[in-house]
From TrEMBL:
It is an enzyme of class 3 (hydrolase). Residues 193-228 form the EF-hand domain. GO terms for biological process: lipid catabolic process; phosphatidylinositol-mediated signaling; release of sequestered calcium ion into cytosol. SMART domains: C2, PLCXc, PLCYc. The keyword Lipid metabolism applies. This is Phosphoinositide phospholipase C. It catalyses: a 1,2-diacyl-sn-glycero-3-phospho-(1D-myo-inositol-4,5-bisphosphate) + H2O = 1D-myo-inositol 1,4,5-trisphosphate + a 1,2-diacyl-sn-glycerol + H(+). Residues 653-821 form the C2 domain. Residues 543-658 form the PI-PLC Y-box domain.
Amino acid sequence: MSAEIVKGAIVRDVQPLQTPPLADSPIKTDTTIPDLLIKGTMMTKVSEKGKKRVTFRIDPDEGQILYKSSKAGLVPIEAIKELRTGSNTRYYRQQFKYPEEYEERWITVIYILDGTYKTLHIVADTRDIFHLWDTALHKLYAVRQGLKTGLGNVELRQNVFERQYWKGADKTGDQVLDYGDIERLCMRLNVNLTPAELQRQFKEADTTNKGHLDYTQFQTFVRVLKRRSDLEEIYAKLATENGGQLDLAGFTGFMKGTQKSKLSDDQMKEVFAKYTKAQSESPNDPVGVMSVEGFTSFLFSPENSAFSEQDKPVWQDMTAPISDYYISSSHNTYLVGHQLVGVSTIEGYIRALLHSCRSVELDIYDGDEEPTIYHGKTLTSKVSLRDVCQAISKYAFVTSPYPLLISAEVHCGIAQQDKIVDIMAEVFGDALVQAPVEGRPKIEQLPSPEHLKGKFLLKAKNLYVVEQLAAVQAARLADKAATQRAVEIEADTPSSESSDNEAEALLKEGLSDLKNKWKRIRGKSGDASKDPAKHKTKMSFRLASLLVYTVGVKCHGLDAEVEYAPEHIFSLSENTANRLLKASMTDLVKHNHTHLVRVYPKGTRVNSTNFEPHRYWAAGCQVVAINWQTFDLGYTINQAMFQRNGRAGFVLKPDALRHPEKDLLSKRTQHFLDITIISAQQLPRLRDSKGQEIIEKSIVDPFVEVSLHIPDWTHSPFLPDSATAAGAKYSPSTNATTTSVSSARTVSLRTSVIKDNGFNPVWQQELCIPFDCVGDMMDVIFVEFAVRQNGKDDDDDEPIGAYCIPLGCLEQGYRHLPLHDAQLSQHLFSTLFVRVSIRNIS
């Protein structure tokens, strides 16, 4: 499938309804679905329980795969995360022990329902049937995915909306909707209309007075229903300010003044022309004047995206040392569930890599014949290292071409350590970075992502280097302790030549005692002589040759007396990192100028919850590892960060963390984020575990909560009395406990509640949220918008829809925010309309 189609595919014809091509569509794609697939075909459904003959069919209008099942029997197309066919299904075909001949007719659908990844395996009876299904699913998937990558393609989105809800309302299939059908549709859409208002609008749409609406009349009814008075008011105000019409001068003034646009005058003209010509409805329309329709299309367009870097290609400088970048990282990548009893599989790697993750984790143990991967000392299942490496090799550079860091904990003996090298060398080939242990040139500076493009870097502890550093550290501490002891002796001893000699002897004795003690601990004397192998370093020299730019070592502190080579990287547990932030954040920032540091969630997170990564990004830590199997705030913030820079998985750290000579970290400022929550559009219904919308008698009562998640860079946050009086809620940063995760500071405010309206609620309410910033690092402050249902427990219930973005990427002015579900899948039709500005206090 071409990237062009995935980005914004366009529907021409979707059976059973026929419509002409869309005039303003950037791409014309025929997605006619064969009647055979709409009626249904018998195929084989494969699962762990065996195989079963099932009739599968496609509903292209509602966007669903349907089949008979005791559990679900429904897969929403928009819930699909990946479609695999042919050789891409080999892993599952082999896992279920089916012959190779099945592969050419095998389809695997990976999707999310009720917050859980699920798989559907289908084998067609013939190659012809397989091709029909393969083509149809990829067409529908491309359209839905294209609509889930922003808010462009307004006409296409409207077209898909109308078809989906027409089909859902026309239960009898008679191609007309009576008043009862429309009434039920409005309930499904969360529409807040009195019976009299609904009757009036129905009669206005029923132009033939037949008591029902055909498809064209239904389209008219829906477009009246979706009319945006809030946008019309903004347009009218702009037109009034510009002599009654919105011409280029008025549009330019709006863009520069309200939208804070950085476009050049020529670029401004191009945008104006695009949304003036495209929306011209008749030859009589005035030339050079933007209509309300054109203005509306512009406000929904990619040119007016709230995310300043949305859909941009890689644009940052990729030639700096890799220590200058944040690196999208995963923890326990092999797990897709609970850390104690979860499933180890290649799926975790595929999901992470397809979302531009650039650091994956392997926990490698001795297997029967070859090394295996699982969570040690738990009941998690196992997956072979070879299967994982093959999956990594296949998907590593699909989304991003930049280097992939493989962080490994190696628990194997020497023999299988050599097999690790054999497998990686065989699977990764020349893309695997390696160098002989002996005779390596000294590394003065880490290479850049550009230099390492397409390369695999193994990161693991080099036990020889670990031992050397430990010995140096022990000797340093021994010298320090002995010197201190000598000073104490000298202070208590009369000054004479004999006493000086005595002090020197005592100093040597103290140093010798401490060094002998260290040797006993390291197994180099004493009891170790009885068992020479007991403390002997057990590491394959071949494995050590794979550790080049990412040599794992233990952290022996961050003071100036401890020297680490540029390639030395240590891993900090969440609790250790928190202690360093509190005790010596400045030292950590300094270390991270030239070295990589990995931070990972504490081991007691058995349910795989996440910390908030921006706490550690603010100190310059690059490899902040997240449990990608858990959709929580930490995961959301991580995904928001790495939407940037073309989803390369590498994002340049702020200048304050890369240029110590500028002393930007001494700059502390105070601000207000002024957000006017204007309205929301087509808020979604929650779905049950089977993927069906939950349609209750009552319509939702929504409110919006806006939260700023701020790193721990001051002990006294900016929280003026005016904000507290307005209802601002402040939550200080916390460290992790056995029952809770660590968190950064949060300041939040919420709107009032709109009763009985989830279709087009209007708030027009300003929220002024105070925050402080260090070194202009707004890229590590995150804004979270959450639309919630009144009466629900905010801490336990997921929002109706949410959106998270780095504050530094949030564009000012009038913006539509796409809303996502708890798994970060974008709702096709749901948006939040806001006005954004940042007010500087100091």
